[in-house]
Structure formats: C-alpha cells, structure tokens
C-alpha cells in the first residue's frame, strides 16, 4: 500500500511569490473579473497577516491561524487588518469565501509541483448557513433613505440605497458598475454577476432621479470607464466592503435594530417587494442572477407566508362574526 505523504510546508516568502504565478494563471484561464479581484484581495490580506503574525512558513496550522484571525480579528485592539474602524463580526459566508479560494490556490500549488499535498486538505470547510430572509419594512426603508440624505456624502449614499433596493443587485456588482454600464434613457444597468455572467436590470424613476442628481454633482462628463460610485476618501471606485460599511452605518443612524441592515438585506427586500407587487418568480430569478430556481423559491415561500398572515387578519368570513 502506498503511504500518502503529509501536507508539505512552504516558506511564507515562497507562498506569496507563487501566488503571483497563480494570479497570472487565473488571467490566462480568463476567470471572471470578480473572481480575479477576490483572489488578489485574499493574497493581499494574507500578505498583511504574514507580517502581523511574523509567520515564517505556511502549513496547515498557519492557515488555520489565518482563518481564525478572520473570525476574531475585529476583537483585537487595532481592529481587523489593522483598521480601528473594522470592528464588526464577519459572517460565516466570509470565512467560507476565504477557505474556498485558499483551497483553490493550494490545489494549484500541488498541480504545479511546488508542494506534495495541499495544507488546506485537513481544514474542513466552515459551516455557511443560508441567511435568514429578513426584509426591511416600508418605514425602515424610508428611515434609511432619510439617514442617507443626512450623511457626509448624501447624494451618493442615497443613490446607492435606491440602486440596491430597486435592482436587487449584489454589493460586488454595484461596486463594479462603470458609467458605460448605465443607460439613463432606458433606465437600465448592465452588470457582471458571478462567473462573469452579464445581465441587464431595470430601475425606476426615483432611482434614476437620485442617480442623475449624484452623477451631475460628481462629474457628468466623466469617461465611460469611470466607476459609478466613487470613494470620497480615495477618489477611486468603492470596494464592496466600503459599501457594506456605509449601509450598516446608515442603518445605525436610522435607528433600525430589529433586522440587520446590509446590501444583502436590501437585496432580500427588493425580492420580497417585487413578488408582493405582482412580479413573476422566474422574472425575479433572471433579475437576481440566480441559476437555480430553488434559491428564488425562498422568497416565494416567504411571500406566501406573508399573504397567509394578512388573510388571517382580514378573513371576510371571520370578520362577519367579529364583535
């Protein structure tokens, strides 16, 4: 019987140096822009952690420590990634996201003959339970918009809330939007979703009005390749994490405590309101960029439960005998 070798260790320097080859290989294989950007981000974060933890080599234990830091980094005095403002807990999906891409990189190292076996092989994937769907109520959405109008960048922040609420796009899709992706006459946006798949979503008059006000203020004559939503601090395109932070702060300012306020909760809200307004399940599937109808069915089930609750309150038969 062939005895299997244990996962090999590799120096931190070699791990990071080979990562550049992995990223180049990703470009050659034409992985989606979002996937490539995510993998660059992960390597940058790992390089930061190597210095933070003074790690000399990368093995299974070092990778476990890195994933543990992602979970608990917000509790450190300096905040996660050395940012004092980064004190929020991460979702299980975030840890699973890092685990998935690190596993892909380590498998590539094995395929390239750099190491004998993947040090990620013995690290079980984190449990990533689906988010409980908790859409915002009408008064909460209005409070969020009111908070956006009072923020440090009111036109931009209001436009972000409207866009997320009115299209159901993912936060990464919103952050990647370029001026050329918008058709203000038709009120549409062409976005690149997971796996590099492109789709077109429509937005309404309120969103268009808010976008126009923001774009005129920012620079209405900007080139087509300029990001739609720009960081007021750095002057370049916003990162998804920055958008998430803004929405969370607006939720705090609006006094919303009963539900988590995030770009994803606005995506949930869009889906539920779309169905309540008479939208079709399969149209919703296309708009959200879902590839499996089971994902969209969660919103249908929630809406059906909502209808049932309303019927119990307003049953014509029951109302006849109420006193």
Explain this structure to me?
The protein is mainly α. The protein has 13 helices and 5 strands. A 3-stranded antiparallel sheet has the order 3-4-5, with no helix packed on it. β4 and β5 form a beta hairpin. The termini are far apart.
How would you summarize the topology of this molecule?
Blueprint: E1 10-11, H1 12-28, H2 33-53, E2 57-58, H3 60-72, H4 92-111, H5 138-149, H6 154-167, H7 171-175, E3 182-183, E4 188-192, E5 198-202, H8 205-219, H9 240-253, H10 263-276, H11 281-288, H12 293-314, H13 316-321
Antiparallel strand pairs: 1-2, 3-4, 4-5
Task: Describe the structure concisely.
This protein is mainly α.
Given helix and strand content, the structural type is: mainly alpha
Overall mean confidence score, pLDDT: 86
| Helical segment count | 13
Helix content: 55-70%
Q: How many runs of DSSP E, i.e. beta strands?
A: 5
Separation of termini? 82 Å
User: Largest beta sheet: what is the strand line-up?
Assistant: 3-4-5
SSE arrangement, N to C? EHHEHHHHHEEEHHHHHH
Alpha carbon gyration radius: 23 Å
Q: What can be said about the biggest beta sheet?
A: 3 strands, antiparallel
Low-confidence stretches: none
Oligomeric assembly: single chain
Beta fraction of the residues? Answer: under 5%
The outline comes out as globular
């Amino acid at each position: 019987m062939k005895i299997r070798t244990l996962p090999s260790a590799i120096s931190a320097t070699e791990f990071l140096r080979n990562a550049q080859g992995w990223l180049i290989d990703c470009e050659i294989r034409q992985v989606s822009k979002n996937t490539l950007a995510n993998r660059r981000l992960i390597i940058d974060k790992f390089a930061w952690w190597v210095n933070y933890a003074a790690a000399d080599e990368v093995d299974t234990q070092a990778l476990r420590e890195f994933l543990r830091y992602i979970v608990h980094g917000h509790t450190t005095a300096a905040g996660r990634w050395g940012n004092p403002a980064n004190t929020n807990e991460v979702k299980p999906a975030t840890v699973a996201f890092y685990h998935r891409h690190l596993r892909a990189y380590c498998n590539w190292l094995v395929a390239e003959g750099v190491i004998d076996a993947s040090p990620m092989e013995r690290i079980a994937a984190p449990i990533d339970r689906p988010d409980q769907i908790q859409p915002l109520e009408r008064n909460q959405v209005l409070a969020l918009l009111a908070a956006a109008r009072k923020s440090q960048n009111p036109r931009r922040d209001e436009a972000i809330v409207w866009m997320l609420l009115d299209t159901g796009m993912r936060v990464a899709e919103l952050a990647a939007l370029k001026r050329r992706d918008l058709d203000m006459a038709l009120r549409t946006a062409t976005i690149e979703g997971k796996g590099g798949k492109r789709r077109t979503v429509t937005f309404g008059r309120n969103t268009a009005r808010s976008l126009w006000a923001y774009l005129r203020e920012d620079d209405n004559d900007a080139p087509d390749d300029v990001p739609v939503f720009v960081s007021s601090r750095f002057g370049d395109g916003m990162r998804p994490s920055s958008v998430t932070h803004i929405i969370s702060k607006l939720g705090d300012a609006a006094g919303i405590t009963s539900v988590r306020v995030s770009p994803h909760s606005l995506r949930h809200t869009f889906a539920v309101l779309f169905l309540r307004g008479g939208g079709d399940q399969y149209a919703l599937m296309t708009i959200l960029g879902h590839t499996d109808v089971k994902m969209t069915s969660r919103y249908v089930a929630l809406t059906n439960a909502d209808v049932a609750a309303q019927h119990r309150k307003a049953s014509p038969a029951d109302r006849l005998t109420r006193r």
